Structure formats: structure tokens, C-alpha cells
Amino acid sequence: MDDDTTLGAVDAATLAALKEDGSLLRELRDLFAVEAPEQVAKLLAAQRQRDGKAMAQAAHRLKGTATTFGAQSMQRLCIELEALARDGGLEGAEGKIQALRAECERVKAALDQALEPAD
């Protein structure tokens, strides 16, 4: 996958550093592929149950993951969701969660692309 939609999803310098460490990038990508959908599902469930604490925890966890890859858009959405959840105002959260889900897909695509052998 070599399109502009994934190019800005992660920080190139961060990816390069992770690639230098042998299989670390692949291991982190594999973990991300499992962890991100689980946390997004927890966000949606918490939002439906109006559980701000659970929502904040899931957003916080994803924010840490985003930081690992230098995924700034993903990180920004997590910060916004965490703040919403902590403030108790969950209105608008579902739209942000859907945006976060899409951004997680972009990040995964960028990680997959980074792991493809160079032609």
C-alpha cells in the first residue's frame, strides 16, 4: 500500500528507529493490530454505558500506543476523548471514536507499508 492516506499516519523517524531494532517494529505492529481494535471496542462500549472512567482508560492506553509510533493524529484524538471522558461530557464522543477507529486503520496500514520489503 503506497498511497498518501497512510504517509502522515506515523512519524518516519520513529519508524526508522524501530526498524533498526530488528523485529521490534513487526512485534509492535502485531500487538497494535490486536490491541487497537480491542481498545476502540472498549471505548464504544464505555460510551454506550456512559462510563467516563472506562472511556478515559481506553483512550489513555491508545494514546500511549500512538506515542510509540509518533502517530500524532491518533494521539490528538485520544487526548480529546480522554478529556471528554474525564469531564463527563460524552456528547460527540461517538463521532470521535469513529474518527479514531479510522485513524487506527491508517496507522496499521502505514506500519504494514513500513514492513514491506523495498523493491
Topology:
Blueprint: H1 4-7, H2 12-20, H3 24-48, H4 52-69, H5 72-87, H6 93-115
Helix pairs in contact: 3-4, 3-6, 4-5, 5-6
Structural features:
119 residues, single chain, 6 helices, Four Helix Bundle (Hemerythrin (Met), subunit A), mainly alpha, disordered N terminus
Tell me what you see in this structure.
The radius of gyration is 15 Å and the shape is elongated. It contains six helices and no strands. The protein is mainly α and 119 residues long. 80% of the residues lie in helices and 0% in strands. It has a single domain (4-114), classed as HPT domain (Four Helix Bundle (Hemerythrin (Met), subunit A)). Helix 3 (24-48) runs antiparallel to helix 6 and helix 5 packs antiparallel against helix 6.
How many helix segments? 6
> How much is the radius of gyration in Å?
15 Å
Provide the CATH topology.
Four Helix Bundle (Hemerythrin (Met), subunit A)
Please report which band the strand proportion falls in: under 5%, 5-15%, 15-25%, 25-35%, 35-45% or over 45%.
under 5%
Q: List the uncertain runs.
A: 1-5
Separation of termini? 13 Å
Shape: elongated
Percent range for helical residues?
A: over 70%
**Overall tally of domains:** 1
Largest sheet: none
CATH structural architecture: Up-down Bundle
